[in-house]
Amino acid sequence: MTQQDILDFMNKNQVCTLATCEGNKPYVRGIKIYRADRDGIVFHTGIAKDMFEQLKKNPNVEFCFITETMQVRTSGTAVLENDRKLKEEMIAMRPFLKPMVERDGFDSLAVYRVRNMVSTVWTMATNADKKEYIEIK
Predict the structure, then answer these.
(1) pTM
(2) Which CATH code is given to the segment(s) 3-136?
(3) Contact 121, 48 (CB under 8 A)
(4) What per-residue confidence (pLDDT) applies to 131?
């Protein structure tokens, strides 16, 4: 797969799993990314959430985007974005965020962009093959 194929797959399958670390143990949860492009995977959480504290302590993450026939695992470093326009765009596209921001302010919404991305693709057909790692730039 090309870099663009991987990004297209992520954007088509935005519900995925995200692994962070809680101390020295992995912590996995399902999330829905906002978008993925060559600048990174964009996602959000609230500052009151465990994920926010975990990412402050260790910004290394891994996503797993999956369908019935393929999975794309992508690792990288989550960088906190302080982009008001991006937050406003996200709130417009995801109205469930609006009450939190109205109540607690824009700083209650933590937006991340994952940088230094490296992906690997798995299918049943490639199950026994050596993994290929693709940098997303």
Answers:
(1) 0.94
(2) 2.30.110.10
(3) no
(4) 92
77-107 pLDDT, tens digit each: 999 998 999 999 999 999 999 999 999 999 9
Residue 53 near residue 103 (C-beta atoms within 8 A): no
Cβ atoms 117, 41 nearer than 8 A: yes
Residue 137 pLDDT: 86
Q: How many CB atoms lie within 10 A of CB 119?
A: 23
Query: Which residue in this structure is represented by tokens 């994952």?
Result: 114
> What's the mean pLDDT in 43-48?
96
**The amino acid at 69:** T
Q: What percent of the chain has pLDDT over 90?
A: 96
The per-residue DSSP string of the chain comes to --HHHHHHHHHHS-EEEEEEEETTEEEEEEEE-SEEETTEEEEEEETTSHHHHHHHH--EEEEEEE-SSEEEEEEEEEEEE--HHHHHHHHHH-GGGHHHHHHH-GGGEEEEEEEEEEEEEEESTTTTSPP--EEE-
Radius of gyration of the chain (CA): 15
